[in-house]
Structure formats: C-alpha cells, structure tokens
C-alpha cells in the first residue's frame, strides 16, 4: 500500500533552529506525513538557515529593514510563503509578530517557551524565572493577531529548579518542546486542524 502524499509546510525561524531540526529529523520518515517545502527567516547568518540548507530544503529571507513599511514586509512574507503552497505554516522561534496578510492566508502554529497565557512575549523564560514560579513549560498554539494569545493546542510543564539560569531552564524546556512540536505538527498534517470561534482542534 502506498502512503498518502505528505502535507507540505513552511517553517519560519530566527535563530538556532533546534525546533526546526526536530521537524527536519521527523520529516525524514515518510510515515510522519510532513514535507518541509521551505524554511523562511527574518534575518541572514543564522544556524536555522544552515540546518535547512544541510537538509536540502529551500530557504528564503524576508527582512523588515528591506521594506519601506511593516505592511509591505508582511505582504512580501505572505507572497514568499504562498509561493511554496504550504497547507500550514510553523513558527519555530520566529522572533517577529506576523501581520494580517500572513495570518489571513495561512494557519500558523507557534511554539512558545512558557505555559500560555502566562509569560507571553519574547522573554518568556527570563520572565518566568524572575516571577519565581515553580513550574513553567512550553505551549504549541495557533497564532492570532495578539502576542502569543491564540488558541492553545498542547502544553507540557517543566519544573523550575533551584539555581536555574535562563540558559539551563530554556535547555530543559527545549528538551520537551521539540517532541511536543513534532507530535502536534505531525498530527495537524495527518489529521487536519480546525480553528473556529477562538478554539483550535485536531480531530
Ligand atoms: C524556542 O524555545 C521557542 O519556543 C522560542 O525560541 C526558542 C527557539 O529555539 N520562541 P530554536 O531556534 O528552535 O533553537
């Protein structure tokens, strides 16, 4: 029996790309059902782009500063993503807020290193440490127009340990974030994802 055609996705990155690597590794197995059509970035010179190139995946860079307005950047990013024809998009450490052009055309899944709605924003690990919580974690959610406010698909908790630094805590979060992202992206690809009235479900 032949497997169904894999679901094509585009992954967006801004940094080291360890979440991307987890997806690249998973997608190497045809049973996973995902084909990474392209990896997009908002900057050059990052390990995330090198990881994509090493895996033979096309890349593109769309920098805000190369556009006269944020709206033009958003429209260009939507065009570049759309050129690859993905079923959905994964924001895996992409450190820019996506605009209405991208969000109206594509369902975007994001991974965030905290238990949303706690600690949204770009410094979630540091903010959790500074708040003195005993437990934080990671969240995979659907992106909406707010800052890490979209409907949650899945979460995993991580204990904060005495003596944790931002780096040690983030590394332990990433250790659970990678398999969670792989699981949810795979299920969304194989089973589909529905977003209605602010709730996201994978059947
Ligand atoms: C991840 O923890 C992600 O949740 C956060 O930034 C980190 C990116 O790591 N937004 P990497 O680039 O996937 O290694």
Strand order in the sheet with the most strands = 3-2-1-4-5-6-7
Overall 3D shape: globular
The ordered string of helix (H) and strand (E) elements is EHEHEHEHEHEEHEE
Number of strands: 9
Write the layout of secondary structure elements.
Layout: E1 7-13, H1 18-27, E2 34-41, H2 47-54, E3 59-61, H3 70-82, E4 88-91, H4 100-105, E5 108-112, H5 124-131, E6 135-142, E7 152-159, H6 166-191, E8 194-196, E9 199-201
Parallel strand pairs: 1-2, 1-4, 2-3, 4-5
Antiparallel strand pairs: 5-6, 6-7, 8-9
Helix pairs in contact: 1-6
The structure holds 5-O-phosphono-beta-D-ribofuranosylamine.
Which features characterize this protein?
35% helix; 7-stranded mixed β-sheet; 24% strand; binds 5-O-phosphono-beta-D-ribofuranosylamine; 203 residues; 9 strands; single chain
Q: What does the model show?
A:
The protein has about 200 residues and is of the alpha/beta class. Strands 3-2-1-4-5-6-7 form a seven-stranded mixed β-sheet. Strands 8-9 form a two-stranded antiparallel ribbon. 5-O-phosphono-beta-D-ribofuranosylamine (GRF) binds next to helix 1, strand 5 and helix 6.
Offer a quick outline of the entry.
It contains six helices and nine strands; from the N terminus they run βαβαβαβαβαββαββ. It has 203 residues and is an alpha/beta fold.
């Amino acid at each position: 029996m032949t497997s169904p055609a894999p679901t094509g996705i585009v992954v967006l990155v801004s940094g080291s790309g360890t979440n991307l690597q987890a997806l690249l590794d998973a997608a190497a197995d045809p049973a996973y059902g995902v084909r990474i059509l392209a990896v997009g970035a908002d900057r050059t010179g990052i390990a995330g782009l090198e990881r994509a190139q090493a895996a033979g995946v096309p890349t593109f860079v769309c920098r805000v500063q190369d556009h006269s307005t944020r709206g033009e950047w958003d429209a260009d990013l939507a065009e570049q993503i759309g050129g690859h024809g993905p079923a959905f998009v994964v924001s895996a450490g992409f450190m820019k807020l996506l605009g209405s052009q991208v969000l109206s055309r594509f369902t975007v899944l994001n991974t965030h290193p905290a238990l949303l709605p706690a600690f949204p924003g770009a410094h979630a690990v540091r903010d959790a440490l500074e708040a003195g919580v005993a437990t934080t974690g990671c969240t995979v959610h659907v992106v909406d127009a707010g800052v890490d406010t979209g409907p949650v698909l899945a979460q995993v908790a991580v204990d904060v340990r005495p003596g944790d630094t931002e780096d040690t805590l983030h590394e332990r979060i990433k250790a659970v974030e990678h398999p969670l992202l792989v699981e949810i992206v795979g299920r969304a690809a194989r089973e589909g994802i529905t977003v209605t009235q602010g709730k996201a479900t994978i059947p």
